[in-house]
Specification:
Length: about 110
């Protein structure tokens, strides 16, 4: 039952990430074609709640999605089972979320 829930959660996070990836790529293309420098990009993102919510959502979806993927690999390839597998999944998800949200905060609200 847990495997089905994790499978569905990974699929839901993939659906959440689709428009965010498209938005991210479109933004990067716009920035590059516009010839914006890193300083100009930061000038536009600093203080923006919109960009914090956009990339914060992206980070959280990716963190959950990736942690579930690593969980599957750790179980199938490395034979990790039980509470070790559960702890590994949680540590990876929290670690990715912490690093990603720190970066998101730094370029938007700091």
């Amino acid at each position: 039952m847990l495997d089905l829930r994790l499978y569905m959660l990974q699929r839901i996070t993939a659906l959440i990430m689709i428009p965010l990836v498209i938005g991210h790529i479109a933004t990067m293309i716009y920035a590059i074609q516009g010839g914006l420098t890193a300083a100009e990009i930061l000038g536009r993102t600093q203080g923006s709640v919109f960009w914090f919510l956009f990339y914060g959502s992206f980070v959280l979806a990716v963190s959950v999605h990736a942690a579930i993927g690593v969980r599957v690999v750790a179980h199938e390839w490395l034979g990790v089972v039980g509470s070790s597998l559960r702890v590994l999944t949680i540590v990876i998800a929290l670690g990715l979320a912490a690093l990603g949200l720190q970066a998101t905060f730094a370029v938007t609200l700091a």
